Amino acid sequence: MFVINADQRDSRSEPDRVPALLAAASECSAVLPFERTVGDEVQGVFATGADVLAALEVILRSGRWSVGIGIGSAELAETPSASRGDAFLAARCAVETAKNRWQEIAVCSPAGPVEPAQTLAGFTAHWIEKASDRQWEVLSLARSHTQRQVAEQLQISQQAVSDSLRASKAAAVEEGVTQLELLLNEENGRYDA
How many whole angstroms separate alpha carbon 108 and alpha carbon 156? Predict the structure, then answer.
């Protein structure tokens, strides 16, 4: 099982971003959807690496967050805050670690940091946070459409689509996301019974 804890950065000097994040994340496929837990922190429970990555994209596109991804066993209740287990402890450890890292994202399991996944998550988070709105829009559409279809939908040239994908290093990003999903699922397999 996967648990994500996300804590808003600079919450004392920034507006409360939790309501906007909860609204944006309502479309994410979750075992238990995000809820506000303490102050400016949210927590959600996810079944697959793909679900974690979809939620991570929403979190990172919605503002500045420290994100902890916990992997492990879980005893689920009706809400994340009423649930417990190793995945929850790992997520708490991960978000606390993330608050003190250059890239404010960490991945932990009961055995400790999951280094390969944590490194790829950091690179993925960096790209998500730095991509322009147009690059993000093009990449999101290109995941399920041809470049021609993307160009038609956005009313831009195919060359502009190609240039955007090249400039954003979309192929490398998508390969990194694929590898991160595999690493997350592999690590989860160690704890899912």
Answer: 42
